[in-house]
Amino acid sequence: MRNREALLKRGVGLSEILPVAQFGEWHSRAVPVRPQEAWRRLLALRWADLRLTRPFLLARGFAVARLLDQRWHEVFRRTAVFEEHEPCSLRFVMVGRPWSAVPAVHRVSSLEEASAFTEAGWLKYGMDFHLTALPGGWTFVETSTLCEATDASARRRFRAYWTAIRPFSGLVRRDVLTVLGRSPE
What we know:
The chain is an alpha+beta fold.
């Protein structure tokens, strides 16, 4: 991973939970709405609102197509632990094996439990959003994704998976940021 220390500093809270993350990405954008409106848009966003990535979601098959009308974060609420501070930050973390044909999940009940989890063969991973008010009614939105394998085997498995999905993962994050800044239709 390029410049791990810089990424962790930008981790907007995730670096506290996943301090030795081996994989990650960070995206940001200034959007022309106040933080409260950016927050409302973030929580209301549906998978179907993602214009750039919707075709990729549909290409994955019927199971994903059924999710298009759901709010994006509801999919993660089934398996992740969330922390929200309206209207400035949202973060969630989960433990799983996303590289498996049928992704496995190890349920955790708190961010602290996720951070302390060390059982071999798993990945601790999460995403966060941080909203900062800017002059003129704008908001700076940052989002990061950090992934921390619990052992070398999980790190190797996830590295192969990450190599395949990282471009798509980044595209989804950029698409979300675009939607947050889009004028109402």
